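Hey,
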Amino acid sequence: MELTLESGAVIRDATEQDIRGRIEGEEFAILAADEDTYLQCAKQNDAPSGYLLEFQEGDLGNHYRATDEAVPLDRVIATFLKYQRGDESWKSDFEWQRIEL
């Protein structure tokens, strides 16, 4: 999977170490299986330790946002690690709402 960061860094075949060490301090991060299937987070300015968390599966019609609006960094990293390992239990860690893009 490819990890893309707000700073412009793109890490192909991202490892657990890349995920643990690179997301903090970034405004956003995207972990992508392909162009249309990914997990992403975006830092919230009004919640210094919180992130929005979204994922997409296959197309814009399948784009979802976690209803938790200020996900702490440790939960973001745990979710990214599960996604990277192919452990789909991350989906049940949050309540998701489909959003229109």
